[in-house]
Design a protein that fits this description.
Protein name: Putative nickel insertion protein
Number of domains: 3
Shape: globular
Keywords: Lyase, Nickel
GO molecular function: lyase activity; nickel cation binding
Strand order of the largest sheet: 10-5-1-12-11
Number of helices: 14
Structural class: alpha+beta
InterPro entries: Ni_insertion
Family: Belongs to the LarC family.
Low-confidence stretches: 65-109, 111-115
Strand content: 25-35%
């Protein structure tokens, strides 16, 4: 199983993630269609941080219209900037510092994209990503990351996701950072991504609403919904930005320490701060790790019913599957006033949960569907094999499900009951006899 592990001891930002993945061997040519769609350029360079050679990435506007549009937008958004969200201001602070720390301001006709370009609403950012023509898996991941950012800001400011207006994280550089990082991750194509606890830094950060302690409010909201842990230090500076936190919240599982790896590549993505004696780099390690079950991102929906007809409950497996449900469980329950009822639990992909919830409400008449808060499950790799089992002169086929871990090590085989029942009926033998023969036939081939 190919494992990609981030070493979070110096935090993470969008440009550091990009740089680390490129330094680890991701193909920079994969970024070309992003530069065409967003009118930006990725400037990739090499730098030194406390003796560590790393890669830097700077996003440059290549379209004069984007620069002039940004200036006009700056006037139009003067009042809006007074209520700039925590996440936006935090991201700007580190990215602004990044530019000056490397002395990379251009003297040509291009403009650095940091904070430039139109500031957009959440819905506008979604529309831009959807219009880029990305492969479906990359588009889903990028949209999910922006949804995390939007939900974090909405929670901080007590508003709805649809009402969020991005400033820094809706500008061209943030879109280029997030989409670019997703593209490079898919290029490296690890089976699993993990991160050690992410350092936030310390001290305070100046944002539009005043002085806030590090980690800033948006980062805390993102971390609360992530699988990994935060830790303070090792310096008084902002090390973990909202963009970095949002990307890692979506793609990475948390681990306490770097896992066992047979390394194939290592990358260092350099940040903007010079933090001697600490090398300000995000390290990524890629290699072959131990086998395990495969992470599958899910949402779990549930509702209580006390008046549903048996026919309706019996049909939910089929009707909800049509809407995107992966699994449906119906559990007897005791409701208020000691009435008998049922708890319906539905597993689906996160991007399907709204559609599945709507169908569940339509089919059952429930007045509410809860999001149970589950973010993923661990599943086996599954393979179906067909074997012939003989009884007398007849040989009939039975399908057998083979379960294995991420390294392909088989740990269970299970004959399909309906196939075994049909063969048993025709042959006049017990079902369990057919099951045993079919499973033994598969085991003998492993």
């Amino acid at each position: 199983m190919t494992l990609l592990a981030f070493d979070g001891r110096m935090g993470a930002s969008g440009d550091m993630l990009l740089a680390a993945l490129l330094d680890a061997g991701a193909d920079p040519d994969r970024l070309e269609f992003i530069t065409d769609e967003l009118a930006v350029e990725y400037r990739i360079a090499e730098t030194d941080k406390c003796g560590i050679t790393g890669t830097t990435v700077d996003v440059i506007l290549t379209d004069e219209r984007s620069e002039s549009g940004s200036a006009a937008n700056a006037d139009a958004d003067a009042d809006a900037d007074a209520t700039e969200t925590a996440a936006e201001a935090d991201e700007h602070d580190q990215k602004h510092e990044h530019t000056h720390a490397h002395g990379q301001h251009s003297h040509d006709n291009h403009t650095h994209a940091e904070g430039h370009g139109p500031h957009r609403s959440y819905q506008e950012v979604r529309a831009i990503v959807e219009a880029m023509g990305l492969p479906d898996p990359i588009e889903r991941d990028a949209l999910a990351i922006f949804e995390r950012l939007g939900e974090a800001e909405a929670s901080v400011h007590g508003t709805a996701l649809e009402d969020i207006h991005f400033h820094e994280v809706g500008a061209d550089d943030a879109i280029a950072d997030i989409v670019g990082t997703v593209v490079l991750l898919h290029d490296l194509d690890p089976d699993r991504v993990v991160t050690t606890p992410l350092a936030t830094g310390g001290g305070t950060a100046s944002i539009a609403h005043g002085e806030y302690p590090v980690p800033t409010p948006a980062v805390v909201e993102l971390a609360a919904d992530a699988d990994w842990a935060l830790r303070g230090g090792p310096v008084d500076a902002e090390l973990l930005t909202p963009t970095g936190a949002a990307v890692l919240a979506h793609v990475a599982d948390g681990v306490d320490s770097l896992p066992e790896l047979e390394l194939t590549s290592i990358g260092y993505g350099a940040g903007g701060y010079d933090l001697d004696p600490h090398p300000n780099v995000l390290r990524v390690l890629v290699g072959e790790g131990g086998g395990g079950l495969v992470k599958d991102d899910i949402a779990v929906l549930e509702t209580n019913l006390d008046d549903a007809a048996p026919e309706v409950l019996g049909g939910l497996q089929e009707t909800l599957a049509d809407a995107g449900a992966r699994d449906v469980s119906i559990i007897p329950a005791t409701m208020k006033k000691s009435r008998p009822g049922h708890l319906v639990k539905v597993i689906c992909k996160p991007e399907d949960r709204r559609r599945v919830a709507r169908r569940l409400a339509e089919e059952t008449g429930t007045l509410g569907v809860r999001d149970a808060g589950a973010t993923h499950r661990w599943i086996a790799e599954r393979e179906f094999r067909t074997v012939a089992v003989e009884f007398g002169d007849n040989a009939d086929e039975v399908t057998v499900k083979v379960a294995s871990d991420g390294d392909g090590e088989v740990y269970d085989v299970s004959a399909e009951y309906d196939d075994a029942a049909a063969v048993a009926s025709a042959a006049g033998v017990p079902i369990r006899t057919v099951i045993e023969r079919a499973e033994r036939a598969v085991l003998e081939t492993l």
